[in-house]
Amino acid sequence: MPRAVIAFSGGMDSTGLLMRLLADGYTVDCISYEYGQKHSIELERASKNIEYLAGSGIEVSHRIIDLSSAMGAFESSLLKGGDEIPEGHYEEEQMKSTVVPNRNAIFASIVYGYALSISTREHCDVEIALGVHSGDHEIYPDCRPEFYTSLGHAFATGNWGSERVSFTLPYIDADKALILKDARNAIEVLGLDFTTVFANTSTSYNPDKDGRSSGTSGADIERILAFHSIGERDPVEYQGTWDTVLENALRVEKKHKDMQYKERLTEEQYYVTRQSGTERAFTGIYWDEKRTGDYFCICCGHLLFNSDMKFDSGCGWPSFHTEHPDAGIRHIDDYTHGMHRTEVQCEKCDAHLGHIFNDGPRQFGGQRYCINSASLQFEELEE
């Protein structure tokens, strides 16, 4: 049976990873840390899930290591005595105040030593599994792939027997939604209850005295959006109703993305894609494009069309008779300007692309996707 050691905070990510490992047949040792964090209720939740697993016949070793005397002296809004936890999106600049200096290096060092000890004692390979994911990369440098590559090299250089210990980071390029999807599947395999497992977690950086999540910290918002994206209602108790915290999370996410679009897009691209504008006919860069290649959404990079689908309609905008099989372009009734038309939007980011009409080539179904060049990014394919 494969062995794994995980840093088990009691939050959503490490809990989801634990479920996946157990479903995959691993014997798992969990290490949790008391490091002076304001949200130490996560440790209570971690213990609750270990108890829930034991009651279901699944034994998992769990240790809580107290680092508060050392790390409690560090500067971070996440720690007791630190500044107030900022509200807003998880990737916004103010969230840097929640970084605890060298935290994951310290945690990983302890987990590595523990894993190496198991390997030496039991003569087996041990994986160090961590639930870090892509959503952490912007603000937390110690959650990035290059950090763990460097750390793994340093640990291997400084220890005998390190060839039997390795890092496993299954979500390093994924997001919280995938963690939840995997956990849901794993929980079903294990015969457990999804609601119970995730009710026994805490992600909030600023829960109240009763342990209820605020729903306003960056960590809360990312979690709420992840549950929403997979069609689940978060079972943890919030200080407000689920509808209220979800509405706030969606509003914060929209505002954050809008700021990113304004920074990255040209004025015309923003006007077209985010404000449902229309470029003037015969002015877009792709209306007469004849090279072979693919057309992607300018906002999110989602594949929409390829050159085989493009035809010359004479309308002055790029025209396509078919969308890419994986595009999933959204069709929406549009009653603006005293007309009834069908707007088309990118399914991934809601970018306005243009409209669809029923005057296209009959041999391809008779549709014409009339698309703004400003909504597209073309990539030429080499012959």
Write up this protein.
The chain is an alpha/beta fold and 383 residues long. It folds into 2 domains: 3-202, Rossmann fold, CATH 3.40.50; 276-380, Peptide methionine sulfoxide reductase (Metal Binding Protein, Guanine Nucleotide Exchange Factor, Chain A), CATH 2.170.150. The chain contains 10 helices and 14 strands. It has helices spanning 12-23, 41-55, 68-71, 103-122, 145-157, 176-190, 194-199, 218-229, 242-264, 267-274; strands at 3-7, 27-34, 61-66, 126-129, 165-168, 293-297, 303-306, 310-311, 319-320, 330-334, 341-345, 352-357, 368-371, 376-380. The strands form 3 sheets. A 6-stranded antiparallel β-sheet has the order 8-9-13-12-11-10. Helix 1 crosses helix 6 (176-190) and helix 6 (176-190) packs across helix 8. The longest helix is centred in the middle third of the chain and has 23 residues, at 242-264. The chain is elongated, with a radius of gyration of 25 Å. 38% of the residues are buried.
